[in-house]
Amino acid sequence: MKSPAFSYYEAKDLADAINVKKTDDDAVILAGGQSLLPTLNMRLSNPSVLIDISEIKELREIKIEDGFLCIGAMSSHSKVMNNKDVNEVLPILCKILSQVAHPAIRNKGTHGGSVAYGDPAAELPAFAVLVDAQIVLSGFSGERIVSAKEFYKGLFETSINSDEILTSVKYPINQNNKQLFFDEITRRHGDYAMAGLVGSIVQKNKINEEINFVFFGTGDKPNEAPKTCEYLLNNEYNYTDIKDILKTDIEFASDISSSSDMKAHLSAILVGRMMKELN
Amino acid sequence: MSYSNKVIISMVINNENYDDLTVETRQHLGDFLRDLGFKGTHLGCEQGACGACNVLVDGESVRSCLMLAVQANGKNITTVEGLETSEMEIVKDCFVKNNAMQCGFCSSGMLMTTYEIIKSKRKYSREEIREMISGNYCRCTGYQAIVDAVEDSLNKINVGM
Questions:
Q1: What is the C-alpha to C-alpha distance for residues A110 and A166, in angstroms, rounded to an integer?
Q2: pLDDT tens digits for A55-103?
Q3: 3 state SS for chain B
Q4: I need a surface site. Which of A17, A239, A249, B86 has the fewest CB within 10 A?
């Protein structure tokens, strides 16, 4: 299908983009467009105007500042993946991005777009929650920072106000000796995962002191699993128990590729892989 | 606030200037290119899944169905008709020789992805080639021959050897 009619506005700077957004409730920000354009082509959304923010240079910066890796919203996945600083301070992010879609989509899709869109099956929102990234939002009355754990409210629902634009994502670099893990199960390389896991473990004298999981592709938003983490601090991994406890942590939602029980199964398998790799 | 649904744009396509063309803001780059006569850009799914419509924008492969024509204003576009570097001539020969074209519908997109592979100037295992072309559907299911062709191209161009 072809997209419905809409207008197009190329924002000169951030203030300009925010001004247009504030005056029109049906205006939508166009970042890389790799999720927006399909929904337009399928006529699942009907914006009045697309505000193109691609010419705002300050949104493309990637830098290390005050213990954070700051990634400007308009940095493409390819740019982030190949950035020297990112590879040095947060190499797991490069590993994650290599599983995000395909080269042609990574060249255009943006970091901020993925975090702001909040697709529950996407990798970046889950990773942001795992390391509790700071999400920087700019609006009419200035800038504010929301912690990633507070940012995702529900299915494609975030705490961005209608006059706000996500300008950057700040990842804490010092992970306190946390070992980070990422894996996902997909039907085709680069597809959205049937289930995916980002996790961290802090060990002292080879004893697990802290475990964290965030699952994606499993529910209506990035899913944490506190009871499963608690269980694994005191018990060995056991597939059947973990699958049962995961079901008390997460309301697994079925999708076109797999039933909710299948997702619980895959999640338990992923936990097993992580415990094996990091222990 | 009201804005126009039509805009005037200019771009370079295959090293030729196309100036002051009026487009509907909703038109994607793939349709725009085909309307101009670049029919080598094939439209399959128009939702980003199949990769048949890949073109190069400023030297990077992009899905032309997931980019508006207006977003290409001022950019340098290469369609399959313009893939004429000496390296890409070798790649095209390898595709023909290895029978990697078959019906030809996915070929322009496959060639754009192969351009990305060649551009990175490093070695690829067959598994990595498969990962790179995983964003391009071939409904003749000629993947084996396509992987052969990409591997053959890499050997002939001597990338990273």
A1: 11
A2: 999 999 999 999 999 999 999 999 999 999 999 999 999 999 999 999 9
A3: CCCCCEEEEEEEECCEEEEEEEEECCCEHHHHHHHCCCCCCCCCCCCCCCCCCEEEECCEEEEHHHCEHHHHCCCEEECHHHCCCHHHHHHHHHHHHCCCCCCCCCHHHHHHHHHHHHHCCCCCCHHHHHHHHHHCCCCCCCHHHHHHHHHHHHHHHCCCC
A4: B86
Which amino acid, one-letter code, is at A186? T
Nearest chain B alpha carbon to A54:
B71
Residue-wise pLDDT tens digits, A235-250: 999 999 999 999 999 9
Inter-chain CB pairs, A–B, below 8 Å: 99
Assess B2–A contact: CB distance below 8 Å, yes or no.
Answer: yes
CATH topology for A179-278 is Enolase-like; domain 1 (3.30.390)
Task: Tell me the CATH class for A57-172.
Answer: alpha beta
Does the domain spanning B6-81 belong to CATH 3.10.20.30?
Answer: yes
**Of B5, B50, B134, which to mutate for an interface test with A (greatest number of A Cβ within 10 Å)?**
B134
CATH number of B84-157, picked from 1.10.1040.50, 1.25.10.10, 3.30.40.10, 1.10.150.120: 1.10.150.120
The domain ranges of chain B are 6-81, 84-157
Main-chain phi, psi angles of B7, to 5 degrees: -135, 160
Distance from CA of A4 to the nearest CA of B (A): 7
Can you name the CATH fold of A7-52? 3.30.43
Q: Tens digit of pLDDT for each residue in B8-30?
A: 999 999 999 999 999 999 999 99
Considering only the beta carbons, identify the residue of A5, A42, A105 that sits closest to B63.
Answer: A105
How close is the nearest chain B Cα to the Cα of A15, in Å? 16
Task: Note the ipTM here.
Answer: 0.95
| Contact residues on chain B for A16, CB-CB shorter than 8 A | none
Residue pLDDT tens, chain A, 279 long: 899 999 999 999 999 999 999 999 999 999 999 999 999 999 999 999 999 999 999 999 999 999 999 999 999 999 999 999 999 999 999 999 999 999 999 999 999 999 999 999 999 999 999 999 999 999 999 999 999 999 999 999 999 999 999 999 999 997 778 999 999 999 989 999 999 999 999 999 989 999 999 999 999 999 999 999 999 999 999 999 999 999 999 999 999 889 999 999 999 999 999 999 998
Using an 8 Å CB-CB cutoff, list residues of chain A that contact chain B: 1-9, 20, 23-24, 30, 33-34, 37-38, 40-42, 49-50, 52, 54, 78, 101-105, 107-108, 188-190
CB contact under 8 A, A4 and B25: no
- Nearest CB to B46 within list A33, A34, A41: A41
Domain layout of chain A by residue ranges = 7-52, 57-172, 179-278
